[in-house]
Structures are given as structure tokens and as C-alpha cells.
Specification:
three-stranded antiparallel beta sheet, 162 residues, globular, single chain, Nucleoside Triphosphate Pyrophosphohydrolase, 3 helices
């Protein structure tokens, strides 16, 4: 289910209070495009293909987290042309932890990822259709479709389980 939302973005490792009282752990990441319009995906040790993302550290805002995580996980320096353009996904990870991730449309001059963390077995820039086919989770496929289709605004997507 998708809905537009303009709300306070989590920062500094905050949890996000949901209307049902459950708190979600905040994170941020990027849907990263190279000059050829290809999308960056990483293969987690679990076998899942995902976008780079991670926990918001104390003192960081979501965009700073996204830039840092993309660099740490994929060895890619990325930038965001419009930080007001953001999306959000929510899901429960394998540990049962509710996560809420703020996503940014990012750009890089890189054409090949340089994996830096043992959590990731592989990485690649793929054409959008191939990326959508390779992504392991439905909420990530929906996110990619929205990022490709949407030109502006703040958006929220409810996700599934991971």
C-alpha cells in the first residue's frame, strides 16, 4: 500500500513511533543510478539482492546515512540532486525487528561497485528491468518502480517481510 506523507524524518539513530505504538528502527539508503541509467544492487550473504542501506548513526541525517552506507557497502561515491525527493519502506527483518528506511534517488559516476563489507557477496549495476527482476523483495521492486516513475515529492510505501 502506498501513500504520500510529509513527516519528520528520523535522525540520530531514532526509532519511529507508529500509530499502533510499535517502534521501528530508522535507516536510510539509496537507489543509485550510474551514467548509463543502471541501478546498483548488492547481494547479501543471505542470497538476497537489495539496495544499499543501513542504520542512522548518531549525528547523521538520513541523507548522510545513505551516502555513507553506499560508500561503505559498495565503494561507490554517490550524490543526491534533490534531497526533498524521498521514499520510505517499512518491513520486518529476519530478526523480527521493524525497520523504516528512508530512500533517496542517488547518482554516481561509478560503473562497478567495489564491495567493502563481508555481508555482501556480489554487486552490480543493472538495467532497470534486470534490476527489478533480480531484487529479492516485493517492496524493493515497488520502490524501484516508484523512483523510476516519480519525479518529485515525499512518498511512503508500506513494505513486507524480510
Amino acid at each position: 500500500m502506498s501513500r504520500s506523507s510529509r513527516r519528520r524524518e528520523p535522525a540520530n539513530g531514532d526509532t519511529v513511533q507508529r500509530s499502533d505504538g510499535e517502534q521501528a528502527v530508522a535507516g536510510a539508503g539509496g537507489v543509485v543510478f550510474n551514467p548509463d541509467g543502471e541501478v546498483l544492487l548488492l547481494q547479501h550473504v543471505s542470497g538476497s539482492w537489495v539496495f544499499p542501506k543501513g542504520h542512522i548513526e548518531p549525528g547523521e541525517d538520513p541523507l548522510e546515512t545513505a551516502v555513507r552506507e553506499i560508500d561503505e557497502e559498495a565503494g561507490v561515491l554517490a550524490h543526491c540532486n534533490d534531497p526533498s525527493e524521498r521514499w520510505s519502506t517499512r518491513y520486518r527483518n529476519a530478526r523480527g525487528e521493524l525497520r523504516e528506511i528512508t530512500w533517496f534517488r542517488m547518482h554516481t559516476s561509478a560503473r562497478t561497485p567495489l564491495l567493502r563489507e563481508k555481508l555482501f557477496l556480489d554487486g552490480a549495476f543493472l538495467a532497470a528491468d534486470a534490476a527489478a527482476d533480480r531484487l529479492s523483495f516485493a517492496e524493493d521492486r515497488r520502490l524501484l518502480r516508484r523512483v523510476l516513475a516519480d519525479g518529485s515529492g515525499a512518498h511512503t510505501q508500506a513494505g513486507g517481510h524480510r
